[in-house]
Design a protein that fits this description.
The protein is an alpha/beta fold. The chain is built from 11 helices and 15 strands. It has 3 domains: about 80 residues, 2-Layer Sandwich (Alpha-Beta Plaits), CATH 3.30.70; about 70 residues, GMP Synthetase, Chain A, domain 3; about 220 residues, Vaccinia Virus protein VP39 (Rossmann fold). It is elongated. It comes from Mucor flavus.
Length: about 425
C-alpha cells in the first residue's frame, strides 16, 4: 500500500493551507448495501486502506447502494485478478473512477512538516509537551526559519489552545498567555511557565519518589521548583522543607501551597542550594533541643548539576556529632543526574564519590532510570544513604561565598533543568 502524502511544498516559510489540497482518483465498486460484507471480504487485499479513511462510502445517488473504494494503483478493473473480475460481472455491479479530495485538515502535523522541510531534514519536530494550556517545544537552531510555521501547523492540526516556544521562550503561535494550570499527584499547580521550570514528562518520577515518603517523615527538597515533589509529600503527611533559588518559583510554590489548602507541614525557602541544605539541617535540629533530629530524605532534582552540590554533605553534621548515637538515623539522598555511559551505575557512583570524597555503599545504592533525554543520554536517580564517615567528616572548605544572587545566576539554575 502506498500511503497518501500531501503535495510537496519545499521552501514554504509562511503557512498556506490551500497548497496542501490534493485530489486522488481511484476505482470504486457500486454494490447493494446488503452485499457490502461479501465484497469487502472478497476484495480485502485490494481495498483503499489508507490511514484515517474509510473503505466504504455512502452512494450520493442512492441509499440502497454503497461505494467500495479500491487501491490507488488500479487503472482499470481488468488489472484485478481474474476471479475478482468474474465476480463483478456475475453480480452485475458497476465500477467507475471516483475522485477523493483531501485538504490541509486531513494530514497529520508530521506529514505537513515533512512536505515543507528540506528532503534531508532529520528529526523533524512535531511533538511537544503540554503544560496546562501551553505546549512546549524544543527547536534546534536548524529549524528556526520554520518556527512560526511549525507552531501554527501543530496549533491547527492538534486542535489545542497552545503556546509554542523554543529555548528563548518565544511565542510561535497561539495566545500570549504563559500562566499554566496543571493537576498532578492529587495537587493543583499554577505558575508562569515563562519564569519557572516544569516538565510534565516527569510526573511518573514525581509520583515514584512521593510514594517512598511516609507520614511524619522529614523531607528536604533542595531544588523544589513550584512544588511537584513537595506539595504531594506534604499532603501525604510528610514534613517538607522546600527550596528554590528562583524567586518566581518560590512565589508560585507559596501560592500553590495556599491553593491546595496545605496549612502545615511545609516550609518554603528561597536560597542557593548549598546554603539551603545547611540551613534546613540547622532549622530542623533547632526544633529539638537535646535529641538528634534530621531529615529522612533529601531530594535533588536538578539533573544537569545536582551531583555538584553533594559536596555539601561532607561534614554536614560535624557540629552535631555529639547528639548522634548508634540507633540514630542518617538521611537517604535521591540525586537526579544525566549520563551517556553504557555503565550508568559505575559512571554515576564514581562521580558521586569524586564530589563527596567517598563512594556510597554499593549494597545500599540503587539506580533508577527516569527517561531518555537525547540520543545516548539518559536521566537517572541515584539513591543512597549518607554514611556516618561522610556526615561527620571535616567539612570541605566553601567553594563559593554567597553574598548575593544575581538574575543571571537564577537563569543558569533554570536552564540547568531544561533537558
Amino acid at each position: 500500500m502506498n500511503v497518501l502524502t500531501p503535495p510537496l511544498q519545499r521552501g514554504m516559510k509562511e503557512l498556506e493551507r490551500s497548497a496542501f489540497k490534493t485530489v486522488v482518483g481511484t476505482l470504486v465498486i457500486k454494490v447493494p448495501t446488503k452485499k457490502v460484507g461479501v465484497f469487502m471480504k472478497a476484495f480485502d487485499k485490494d481495498l483503499f486502506n489508507q490511514p484515517r479513511t474509510r473503505n466504504v462510502l455512502p452512494d450520493p445517488e442512492s441509499k440502497e447502494t454503497k461505494l467500495i473504494i479500491l487501491r490507488t494503483d488500479l487503472e482499470k478493473i481488468d488489472d484485478l485478478p481474474q476471479e475478482k473480475v468474474d465476480m463483478i460481472k456475475e453480480e452485475g455491479v458497476s465500477t467507475f473512477k471516483h475522485n477523493l479530495e483531501f485538504d490541509y485538515n486531513f494530514w497529520t502535523a508530521e506529514q505537513i512538516l515533512h512536505a515543507v522541510m528540506p528532503e534531508d531534514a532529520q528529526d523533524i519536530p512535531s511533538s511537544f509537551t503540554q503544560i496546562g494550556h501551553i505546549a512546549h517545544m524544543n527547536l534546534r537552531e536548524y529549524y528556526y526559519p520554520w518556527k512560526k510555521l511549525i507552531g501554527q501547523v501543530i496549533l491547527d492540526i492538534d486542535s489545542i489552545d497552545t503556546t509554542f516556544r523554543f529555548f528563548k521562550m518565544e511565542v510561535l503561535a497561539g495566545e500570549d498567555n504563559m500562566i499554566a494550570e496543571v493537576k498532578e499527584s492529587g495537587c493543583k499547580f499554577k505558575f508562569d511557565f515563562s519564569k519557572v521550570y516544569w516538565n510534565s514528562r516527569l510526573h511518573t518520577e514525581h509520583d515514584r519518589l512521593v510514594q517512598l515518603f511516609k507520614k511524619n517523615e522529614y523531607v528536604c527538597d533542595v531544588f523544589a521548583g513550584v512544588g511537584p515533589f513537595a506539595l504531594p509529600a506534604a499532603k501525604k503527611g510528610a514534613i517538607v522543607y522546600a527550596n528554590d533559588l528562583n524567586p518566581s518559583s518560590h512565589e508560585w510554590m507559596k501560592e500553590n501551597i495556599k491553593a491546595n489548602k496545605i496549612t502545615n507541614g511545609i516550609y518554603p525557602y528561597n536560597m542557593d542550594g548549598r546554603a539551603f541544605i545547611r540551613q534546613a539541617v540547622k532549622d530542623l535540629q533547632a526544633t529539638s533541643k537535646d535529641e538528634w533530629k534530621t531529615f529522612d530524605h533529601f531530594v535533588m532534582n536538578l539533573p544537569a548539576t545536582a551531583i555538584e552540590f553533594l559536596d555539601t554533605f561532607r561534614g554536614l553534621y560535624h557540629d552535631q556529632k555529639h547528639l548522634f548515637n548508634t540507633r540514630a538515623k542518617l538521611p537517604m539522598i535521591h540525586c537526579h543526574c544525566f549520563t551517556k555511559s553504557t555503565d550508568a551505575m559505575q559512571d554515576i557512583t564514581e562521580r558521586v564519590a569524586n564530589i563527596m570524597g567517598g563512594k556510597p555503599d554499593p549494597l545500599k545504592t540503587t539506580l533508577h532510570w527516569v527517561r531518555n533525554v537525547a540520543p545516548k543520554k539518559d536521566m537517572y536517580c541515584v539513591s543512597f544513604p549518607l554514611s556516618s564517615e561522610l556526615a561527620f567528616a571535616a567539612p570541605h572548605s566553601e567553594k563559593r561565598k554567597i553574598e548575593q544572587v544575581s538574575p543571571s545566576t537564577i537563569e543558569q539554575s533554570k536552564s540547568a533543568r531544561t533537558e
